Prior knowledge:
The chain is mainly alpha-helical. It is 75% helix and 0% strand. The protein has 19 helices and no strands. The chain has helices spanning 16-22, 27-31, 39-65, 72-100, 104-129, 134-157, 160-185, 209-219, 221-237, 243-264, 272-294, 297-328, 334-358, 363-389, 408-419, 423-433, 438-445, 449-463, 468-479. The longest helix has 32 residues, at 297-328. The termini are close together. The relative contact order is 0.13.
Amino acid sequence: xxxxxxxxxxxxxxxxxxxxxxxxxxxxxxxxxxxxxxxxxxxxxxxxxxxxxxxxxxxxxxxxxxxxxxxxxxxxxxxxxxxxxxxxxxxxxxxxxxxxxxxxxxxxxxxxxxxxxxxxxxxxxxxxxxxxxxxxxxxxxxxxxxxxxxxxxxxxxxxxxxxxxxxxxxxxxxxxxxxxxxxxxxxxxxxxxxxxxxxxxxxxxxxxxxxxxxxxxxxxxxxxxxxxxxxxxxxxxxxxxxxxxxxxxxxxxxxxxxxxxxxxxxxxxxxxxxxxxxxxxxxxxxxxxxxxxxxxxxxxxxxxxxxxxxxxxxxxxxxxxxxxxxxxxxxxxxxxxxxxxxxxxxxxxxxxxxxxxxxxxxxxxxxxxxxxxxxxxxxxxxxxxxxxxxxxxxxxxxxxxxxxxxxxxxxxxxxxxxxxxxxxxxxxxxxxxxxxxxxxxxxxxxxxxxxxxxxxxxxxxxxxxxxxxxxxxxxxxxxxx
Length: 481
C-alpha cells in the first residue's frame, strides 16, 4: 500500500481550548478567578443566572432548529452578531464584577449575557466539529483540554490585570474562530470533514418531530446523562472556596488527556474507541469506587477527590466526542443535537449550583453523588454483557478480520480516497470489514441501526458492490495490492 495516512491533528481546531478555559458556565473556568477581588460575593447569583439563561436559550434554539427557514444565511448572520455581542458583554461584565462587585441587577444582567454567549459558542464549535469521526473529535478534544488546563492554571497565577487581558483575548478568539472558518471555507468541508453534513441522510424515513426527538434522545441517553451528572457534580462539589477540588480537576484533566491521546495512535486492528469507552472507562470508575471503600477515612478524602476528578475528566472527553460523533451521523440536524447537549449541561449546572448555595457540601450530598456515580459506572460496565445476552451484538469487540497482517486503517483511508467516501462512511467501512454487526456499529457510534444500514447502502453504491462479502473481498484486494 502506498497511501498511508494516519490520524492527524488539525491545529485550527485547538482553538476550542480557548473556549474551555474561558467558558462562563464551566466551573473550572470560573474557578480560575477564585482568588481575585469580589469573586465570592457575586459568583452564586451570576452562576445561577448564567446557567438558567443558557438552558432557556438552548431550548429556544432547539425549537427554532426544528423549523425550516427560508433564509439560513440571514439567520446565521444574526446568530454570529449575537454571539460576538454577548461574548464581549459577558466577558467584560464578568471582569467588572470581579474588580468592583456591582449590584445584584448588574450581576443578573451579566449572567444573562454570559449564558447566551456560552450556548452560542458551544453551538458554533459543535457545528465546526460536525463531520469528524469520533476518534478524530476525541483526539482534538483531549488535546484542547490539556492546553486549556495550562491556560486556566496560568490565569489563576498571574496578576489580575494580566489575567483579565488574557481572558478577554481567549474568549474573543473562541467566539471568532468558528465564524472565521465558516466564512473562509464558504460551505466547503472544514479540515476534519470530508463532506458537509446534511440531515436525514441515513435513509430512516421521515419521522414526526416528536418521534425524531424521542429517537435522538434514546440514542444519546448515555452521553447526555453523563454530561448532566458531570455538570451536576462539579457545580455542587466544586465549592469555590475549596481550591483543592480545582487543582485536583486540573491534574485529572491533564492526566486523562495525556492518556487518551497516545491510545488513539495505537495501530490496532480492533476498535480503540471500544476499548476506551467500554473497558478502560468502566474499569477506571470501578477501581475508584473500590479504593474509596477500602482506603482508611483519613487518606480517603484525598484518594476519592483525585480519583473522582480523574474519572470525570476522562469520561467528559468521551461524552463530548460521542455527541460530536452523533452530529456526524446526519440523522438529525446538528443544532437539534447540540441544543439538547447544551441544555442538559446547563440544567445540571443550575441544579448543582442551587444545591451548593442552599444545602452546601455535606456527607449526604457527597454520598448521593457517589451512589449516582456508582450506578452509572456499573451500568457502563455491564451493559455490553446485557446487550450480548439479548442478542443485540455479537461480543465486545466484534469478530476481527481473518488476516491479521492487514492494516485496516490504512486500507480504509485508501478506499475512502479512491471512492470518495465521507468520514463517517470510512469509519463504518472499517467496522464492517472487521466483522462488526450493524447493531454493534450503531451502539458504538451512537446512531440508529437504520442510519448504519443507510450508510452501508451508500458505501455499496460508491464501491459498486451489493453485499458485505463483496466489500470484504474488495477490502482484501486493496490490502494486498
